[in-house]
């Protein structure tokens, strides 16, 4: 008789959370260190930052030198002319929001931190609006796809590969670039001069708030006269949309109504007006405004028609925000570590093939097997590749040595109530099946929810075979959702006392075992996004002795819906040593590479005199057999010398190769030799690397 698992309670889940946190903490610390090695800011602090050696992350962003970049003073400047210290307009690297349709990014003032140029093999991205964007393969654009509502980062070389690959359906994938600004030029015509002078004299720039974010409005006030008519005519001639408000009594002594002309079209049109017409007083006022709370909103979208290879002269740029606007599109600094992880991900996560063996050799069974193969391939393509699921799993296995997949049934999606076609009494088989296929392709949703769970976002309890027994995930929900959808009396009471606002996020625990699913309120402390999630979650179970159950039910799947895909497993049983990322053997090489990159990026000379010298009164003979004293003061570099020693600059070695050649060689060693040794059988493990379930 199977053992029934008891229904989870607030105390039992809290106690399990505490135990799993303790067991996994050493492993997570190692994972976070290696995550930072290959991802965070694309730079390892091999050389410590200080006032004397002001290290900055080195990220190389490569677009054609002729590509226009939007600067902070609202000019479009060629990428090849930008220099370190120039001010540009960037935006948040990552989006935020509770669901994809509400994901958003804000503009962000940024500064160019690196600028150089080179001639390299690159790509030309051809858009259906006729524009061509020239860049390197590692360059990333904000891209949208029909299957994903939110814009996300994609490398150009990946897009090139996917557009030229054959897919199961035979149709190439579709990618579009959201356009956030139209490129403008300085308007030095008579109409531009009239508008600049008029808005400088009688105009103003104000900020407004609405449901879509904060906007800027350029306004011009004038009585009904010839100047007002000329301003309207010039706005029309230069293709600016405008509106007019009439204020009947602008002031107590006014004898005429005031006509207020407003440049319409939102933030992008206001910026185009200021940047093209350039009224100096309004531009000076713009500098005082904080642009960081202005929403980055797309004004149009251009589909990628094709991508081809070509030689490109590129400007290698890095900005403090890691982002900026190039030719009106969202661009990202292309980092070194990102290139390595994506390269390795491409090696690891090769597309699998599917084969179904018919039980007999009759035609019906063979046809059924073929349909199963096609269905499996189609599901994999639609549900796992199109939403970036497969590469995400690959990255986790490469870095952490494990990945987690959650699959839950959503049977209600294929019911008559949800719109699934019901066969008519006289409808033929062919007609009905066509109607079902059309419904699945247009309205129907896939009846499984398949999601990737980041390795550092889940605490699993595993058995001896690394099968998942129970999991705990920390999630956040708004007070409104907790009160209305979950019926939490605690949150309702907090809302009534105005202790929390409806949009404040509170922590909840998602607990799942082989029988139960349970959501529990983990506390009433409002989420603070200024605190790193790792730190916040570590202390969550320490703040209470019991969680508050919100909703609990049986999932009736017969097994845990989360599956762990292991990478390389060791013979050690403790979680800290049991899993090994595929990139772990490349750690030393990555450190060396970053050391070289840091030196090149910051122009730090390894052969320099220290800031200070501490001359000892004794000679080296008098100190024989003893360690040299160390002076620890916050003065910068301090070198201790004996009385009979002279401090000289080390001779710079001659005949060394150029630093960029050295970096290219190091990159070659890391990306091709080390990773392929790890991934393709020259280390422990007999299976091909993409068969990660056999590791």
Count structural domains.
4
User: What top-tier CATH class of the largest domain fits best?
Assistant: Mainly Beta
Q: Span from first to last CA?
A: 34 Å
Named CATH topology of the largest domain: Endonuclease - Pi-scei, Chain A, domain 1
Description:
The structure is a single chain. This protein is of the alpha+beta class and 695 residues long. It folds into 4 domains: 147 residues, no CATH class; 176 residues, Endonuclease - Pi-scei, Chain A, domain 1 (Beta Complex), CATH 2.170.16.10; 101 residues, Roll (Endonuclease I-creI); 111 residues, no CATH class. Helices cover 30% and strands 27% of the residues. The strands form 8 sheets. Strands 1, 4, 5, 6, 9, 14 and 17 form a 7-stranded antiparallel beta sheet that branches. The longest helix has 29 residues. The protein is globular, with a radius of gyration of 31 Å. The C terminus is likely disordered. This is Hint domain-containing protein. It comes from marine sediment metagenome.
